[in-house]
Protein: 3-methyl-2-oxobutanoate dehydrogenase (2-methylpropanoyl-transferring)
Amino acid sequence: MALWLRRSSKHIIKNLMYSNYCRNNITTKTTTAASFLNEKADVVSPVFFVGRRFESTKAAEMRIDPQFYSSEEDEDHDDLLNQGMDFPGGKVMFTSEMSFISEHSDKRIPCYRVLNDHGEIVSDESYQQVSRELATRMHNSMITLQVMDTFLYEAQRQGRISFYMTSNGEEAVNIGSAAALSYDDIIFPQYREPGVLLWRGFTLQEFANQCFGNRADYGKGRQMPIHYGSKRHNFFTISSPIATQLPQAVGAAYSLKMDNKKDACVVAFMGDGCTSEGDFHAGMNFAAVMEVPIVFICRNNGWAISTPVSDQFRSDGVVVKGPAYGIQSIRVDGNDALAVYQVIRAARNIAISEQKPVLVEALTYRVGHHSTSDDSTKYRPIDEITHWKMAKNPLARFRQWIEKNGWWDEERDSEARNTIKQEVIQAIQVAERMEKPSLLELFTDVYDKPTNDLQEQETSLRETIQRHPKDYPAFTYSL
Structure:
């Protein structure tokens, strides 16, 4: 500050944003810095505290009241205004035409795809070849996800677990994105990305353990079913409130940037309903301003529980929200696993090499109910569900493509499904037979040393279970 104030009086006056004090006391260009400093400190202009990140002196000049220009400077001042405003965020040109930006674009943002609905390559221009090994693994993983969803959903309907959510119709977004990422990339999921964790090596037994909340569950039975998490797989634990993971993900990406880690990024998943949450906008702006390596993937599946996208926003989907924050964005066919793979791979490269965020909107459809607590036929037509399930099925499309390449056939498909089915059934049976977490775990992991209140609550619970053992059969063994 002291060094700044020792500059010439000409420089100070030139860069001064005139406050009321300036207008009342500075009348000529001969005013000195010394005379200014002799006045009270609380009248110092805010221009002295402008951050060094922006060169805003020219913008400050144009905010000076025209009354302080002499007659011979009027013409130069008019020319300056006509050139535009060198604003901190970038130069803005002036116009004499008053025109409001339209809320709607005449043309919608196109959707990138590689495969058509019949599994045929639509264009070779930007398509990167995928190996047979990768393609068959992707298809096998989508089958596994579908079979697991089917059996665990039925387990809930039978009263064996308390809750479940499927990824029916969204398998391509799950597996296509997972295949394009590195295991070092950090995942912040919502609650419809089990396929990403499956791809990374989370076993069917581990999925079942979490849903049944047994002793082998990493969350010790404290979370609702499908709230998976695995530190070993760089997969943060799922939270029920939507969009809360987005600012957290940006913070994690910022830590990668601070550590100068140039071989990984953060990937944050969300649904279209997240865009109505404040955390979505805070996270997007935070990521853009801090220029962090993160890929936002929005599964726009048409419905946020019972709210259609037509009631969710008036914009052209989610993809247009990115540029408003200064984020490079793209829209992809979320039912085309090959297109999702290509886009996420490219987005990851941008995030890492350019150290900046990318937004991907994947257009897909939630074929299943929102959860086992929902009946979607009450708010959307069955014909719509059937159309997307049959005509737009992501597994069927991908299977047609690999069959055309000679990499898959009916016999192999049937064999894979039967094998996976037996593995899922076995995992469920093992998880169901396993004991529940110890009663003592209910009071751990909160404080280093249990407080008196916690100790009293534990004693009270133990006494209650001892009095009513038939009502708490799962916990009597741990007393």
Q: What stands out?
A: The first helix runs from residue 2 to 5. The beta strands are 85-87, 90-92, 186-188, 266-271, 294-300, 303-304, 307-308, 328-333, 358-363. The chain has 19 helices and nine strands. The chain has three domains: 2-92, 132-433, 439-478.
